[in-house]
Amino acid sequence: MKSKFYGVISPFITPFKEDYSIDLEAVRWLARFQAERGVHGIFPNSTTGEFVHLSREEALEITRVVLEEVGGKVWVIPGISANYTEDSIALGKTFRDMGVTGAVVTPPFFFKISGERLKKHFSAILEKVDLPIIIYNIPATTGINIPVALLHELAKEYSNLAGVKATVESFTYFRQLVQIVKADRRDFAVLTGLDDFLLPVLMMGGDGGIMALANVAPQIHRAVYDAYTSGDLNRALREWHRLLKLVQVYDYATSFPTAVKTLLKVLNAPVKPYARMPLTPEPRETEEKMARLARELGLTI
Fold it and tell me: Which residues bind pyruvate (predicted)?
């Protein structure tokens, strides 16, 4: 049984103007660009999209615009993460009424809950939001590493738990997701949040990834995914090494959002490099490093 979500999903950046208001024209352009370059889905109100810097109204507006541009062509799976469980539920219900495909949710990221409290948070969302839900494990920002055993419990209890996005540097974690959770629920999607883990996770039996560089060059991610799923392992490996080269942009930048925005800038995309404080645009030397890398990879917009 195939997972509902698979392949290459973009955690959509939020383009800003110089005055830090949302650049809706850039949102429209970027959504079309990503759909044309092969993403299976778009995740607005994401980590890379600086969701913690957006108001509720802004999150709704960005998602509405993405739906207008590419709804029906790719999945639109916005984030509903919040520190107050009821806020996640309310946002999820609003997005459902807008016609999104699903939603993504992290643990709360202020009070570091665990055990039964963490289970209650996710259970309440799964019970009250009538959408396929992807739970997002990103311990570097939430301070909580969701146990595989908890995801297994939730997957058995809630059919609308569609999968997990895990931004963790652990093969063991992914192996256990596949061997424990996916073994019980064949339709449970195991997705990496790290571009460089795409091929290893697929080879372990996972389904794909929600990866920040799919904002810029999803055709490279698709080449890895398509080669692997068609059985061409040699090509998958070659394309993965191209992706690994591209991943160096994270080594140059100070954050995921500014890495993506800077790369778009050096490729002359109609997306400005502004991020909301405390994030700030990358310096010229970082731009120059990314421009060199983009030339070596033959990237164009």
Answer: 48, 210
User: Given 6, 136, 225, 228, which residue is catalytic?
Assistant: 136
Q: Most distant CA pair in the chain: distance in Å? A: 51
Active-site residue, from 165, 261, 265, 289: 165
Residue 165 annotated among the catalytic residues of the structure:
yes
Per CATH, the architecture of 7-231 is what?
A: Alpha-Beta Barrel (3.20)
Q: Report the candidate in 167, 84, 151, 144 with the shortest Cα–Cα distance to residue 119.
A: 151
Contacts of residue 186, defined as CB under 8 A and 6 or more positions apart, other chains included, come to: 1
Total-model pTM: 0.97
Detail the residues annotated as belonging to a binding site for pyruvate: 48, 210
| Average model confidence (pLDDT) across the chain | 97
- Convert the pLDDT of each residue in 189-235 to its tens digit: 999 999 999 999 999 999 999 999 999 999 999 999 999 999 999 99
**Could you tell me the CA-to-CA distances from 1 to 7, 36, 183, 188 in Å, in that order?**
15, 27, 11, 9
- Residue 274 is among the residues annotated as catalytic for this protein: no
In the predicted model, what is the mean pLDDT of residues 76-102?
A: 98
Which residues touch 194 (CB under 8 Å, ≥6 apart)? Answer: 167, 168, 169, 209, 211
Question: Which residues sit in the known binding site?
Answer: 48, 210
Each residue's pLDDT tens digit, 138-180: 999 999 999 999 999 999 999 999 999 999 999 999 999 999 9
- Torsion (CA) 297, 200, 80, 3 in degrees, nearest 10: 110
